[in-house]
Amino acid sequence: MKLCVRQICFLFAAILPVTRLLVYPATLTFWAKNDLLFSAALSFLLEGTAVASVLFAASRTQKTLFQLLEENFGTLAARAVYLLFALFFAFSAFLPILEQRGFVLQVFYENVPSFLSFLPFFLVSLFACTKGLRSIGRAADLALPVFVLCFGILFLMAVTEGDYTALLPLFSAGTDILRGGAFGLPWYAGGAYMLFFLGNFRYEKGAAGKIMLAYAAGAAAVLAFLAAFYAIFSDIALLQQNAVAHLSKYATAFTSLGRIDLFFVFALTLVLLFALCIPLQLSVHCICAAFSCKTTLPALAVNALLLVLTLLFNQSYLEIQTLITQKLWIVFAVFAVLLPYVSVFLRRKEKKMLPKGEKYERT
Amino acid sequence: MSARKIPLRLAVFGAALLLLLFFSNDFGLIDIQKTSIVTAVAIDAGEEGIDVTVQIAVPKSGSTAASNVTVKNAATMMDAIAELNLKTGWYPTLVHCRLILLGEEAAKDNVFDHIDYFLRSQFVEDTCLVALCRGRAEKALSAQSPVGDMTYAAIEKVLSSEAQQTGLVSVNILREFSKGYFGAGESSFLPLLTVREGAETGGSDAGSGDANAGGSGGAGSSGGKAVFEASETALFLRGKQVATLGAEETLAFNLADTDTDLAYGNVTVTERGEPVIYSLKMRIGKKLLKVRAEGEIPVLCFSIRARAQVADVNRAGSAHEVAQSSIVPESVLRAAEETFRARLSDAFSKAKESGCDLFGVCASLQRFYPKLWKKLGKEALALTKPVYDIQFDTMH
User: Fold this and answer.
1) pLDDT tens digits, residue range B136-192?
2) Is the model's pTM score more than 0.90?
3) What residues in A contact B16, CB-CB < 8 Å?
4) Does residue A354 fall inside a structural domain?
5) Which residues in chain A are closer than 8 Å to B179, comparing Cβ atoms?
6) Is B183 in contact with A235 (Cβ distance < 8 A)?
């Protein structure tokens, strides 16, 4: 088994929440305004049920998605689905990479932002992609203590600075809450991740409860962050790109020491780095499964593709964000929400125990 | 994870973290000869467009001096910054900008025509102080301060959080000023900075259309130390200055609605037919501003509880009175309540008449009474009725 339940718990509690702390809060505010918590809760509900569906499937079989697809629809279909998911994961990594590029250049490099500063990310990603799913679990083990410490301190520094009545009146955004929930889906690919963990972790009794609890903890952290974010910025919240870098700078207790919050933001960037690698790693995993090949070439191809795309659209973050969130959110709804639900309905044929040396015959 | 590998992994993790920290600050490459560190920006209305003056920190051995540079008649802030770069060869770094000063004339139009640049670029921290100047902001920034070479530092002291806590100044930062402007009431406030005596002899008249670097110690200052005062408060509606609160109204506003928790104020009472002035030290125990609806009339309730002690009296007191400064006579307490109520009422009336939602009535209605807010809209402030519940008690 490549992963264990603990690592999946850490992934949902510590890694995925960090991806929702940069541009997501401002994007959500643009649509849902003071009702951003409802939009986020809606997205969490959709992603959470997708994760729960996959966990339900996992409780009934130890097979991987590929094996399930193979048994239900044949090898060709399984390969095709994996290729589609490979494309989806590569596509889903694009916006977060541009997002983090903007974050790193704007927040950390004050003077002359240079794109070269961000390029080493692709070296890290290439290395991670060659290591397969096992490295996702290891990254999660590292990420949890960093996240708990840094997010905890940043949140404590921010929580008292806001006016929480700014979140009132509830439901004033009306249908824009739904729009915010839908357009926020590109930040919620956890259901699709879980789908590919199927069969790659040993499902033990109570695993679903633990994972869902970890998921709820991560969701609660993000919701609390969003509440503090809107309480602090209210009517100018939509101007605050890279929210995590701005939220804690108002803590007056440390004013004389300068921006010490940036230490914790730097450390969270490390967790973000792990988070950015995951879709690329899964993309490589899908290609390898589809073509039954080793990871090196697909890892090179996927990273080269993303590098070229990032170079091409280096200055077009806003256009890409608008396209992906407002038009292509449906792709995320299908791959990260709908398809994980469908996994529950895949037939599970148990393998017959075959004598040693005899080849398994597909039925 | 085996126990033997844990230290190794921790070391690798630590190294990665340190590398991240190391590589996250421009590789230490800041060419001080080419980069100007802007500490303050002054914006004035020009003949065509705006005049922008920046105060630049010039590091010298053992100290830091200031140099002012002015760009006249720029169409936008961006133009002004670009022109600074073009004419001086300095690439301005605004991340250390701690102060934005607005000239009185500039505030007759929407100041967000220009200062929204700082919100767009995010090169300036939104914790940056913002103030309105009586007269031209450029002159204020050129005044030579007795506190130090950097004028911005002297002004920053006047607008410090300590000054705010004692109620003498209504300090505001870019974030809060912007929130007010973009909020339901479209209103906000700024401290009104006045340069006293001798200060206005200085100045860096850069000449029309030119960007000139001034000398050190306040550009072109020809002597005369300046004292800055910001006891008045300018009220803004839709980015334009619409009214001014005097010093006592500012104090009342601060005691009722800002972070002020300890303040000094004078109360006049009549004793034996003579007016006697008591200087009181006031500690605010509770302050609560609440908007409620009475039918379709918004009511703004000020609920304030304060404790006072005598700091000084303008007549000689007996030894007994001096020893018991923490006990304030009942008549003085009631007079203090009445004085505070009158000043607060003046501040509220001034804000209401000018249309400035200083006390956040519109925002409260929008949040707690959305239907009434929808019905009344911008008329809500004009219809608002104030209720004052102010009680002063003796400190001991």
Assistant:
1) 999 888 887 776 667 888 888 888 888 888 888 999 999 999 999 999 999 999 999
2) no
3) 270
4) no
5) 233-236
6) yes
Range B248-394 classified under CATH 3.30.300.210: yes
Q: Is residue A362 part of a domain?
A: no
CB-nearest partner of B17 from A110, A236, A267: A267
On chain B, the residues whose CB falls within 8 A of the CB of A142 are 13
Specify if A361 maps to a domain. no
Domain with CATH 3.30.300.210 in chain B: 248-394
- Say whether the ipTM exceeds 0.90: no
Tokens representing A30 are: 């643009």
According to the 3-state scheme, what is the secondary structure of chain A? CCECHHHHHHHHHHHHHHCCCCCHHHHHHHHHHHHHHHHHHHHHHHHHHHHHHHHHHHHHCCCCHHHHHHHHHCHHHHHHHHHHHHHHHHHHHHHHHHHHHHHHHHHHCCCCCCHHHCCHHHHHHHHHHHHCCHHHHHHHHHHHHHHHHHHHHHHHHHHCCCCHHHHCCCCCCCCHHHHHHHHCHHHCCHHHHHHHHCCCECCCCCHHHHHHHHHHHHHHHHHHHHHHHHHHHHHHHHHCCCHHHHCCCCCHHHHHHCCCHHHHHHHHHHHHHHHHHHHHHHHHHHHHHHHCCCCHHHHHHHHHHHHHHHHHCCCCHHHHHHHHHHHCHHHHHHHHHHHHHHHHHCCCCCCCCCCCCCCCCCC
pLDDT of residue A80: 95
Distance of CA B367 to the CA centre of its chain: 26
Tell me the nearest-neighbour CA distance from B21 into chain A, angstroms: 7
Q: How many domains would you assign to chain A?
A: 1
Among the ranges given (A39-43, B33-37, B56-60), the one the predictor scored with the smallest mean pLDDT? B33-37
The CATH code of the domain that includes A171 is 1.20.1740.10
- Chain B interface disruption, residue of A230, A232, A235, most B CBs within 10 A: A235
